[in-house]
Amino acid sequence: MNAALAGALLAGTGVALGAFGAHALKASLSTAMLEVFETGVRYQMYSGLALLALAALPSQRRAPVWLLTGAVVFSVSLYALSLSGIKVLGAVTPIGGVLMLVGWVLAALDSRKPRTT
């Protein structure tokens, strides 16, 4: 997996979705559902930036896949919930959160590996 490419795509689409939410959805979603949408955007951006940073570290081979998968599951479930109002979609969101947490644990563990020069 190319973590830099994935990070750039996540961050770039996060900017686009954030603008979409702020401009196109503001009038059509309730305040609560707009906040749900914005939470998805925020975590998508965090993950995109994290992937860009991890891409610069050769020791980070495992974490990027988990962070990317988690961010997609987490954010897309929140986008779908906010746009559809189908509450059961909110049950998927914690799965994405757990996947991201696994990614962060792996990032921490892999950062302890000795550097090769």
From TrEMBL:
Chief location of this protein within or outside the cell: membrane
Transmembrane segments: 40-57, 64-82, 88-109
Domain of life assignment: Bacteria
Entry membrane topology: Multi-pass membrane protein
Location of the protein in the cell: Membrane
GO cellular component, one term: plasma membrane
Keywords in alphabetical order: Membrane, Transmembrane, Transmembrane helix
Keyword Heme: no
Entry's family note: Belongs to the UPF0382 family.
Name of the protein this chain belongs to: DUF423 domain-containing protein
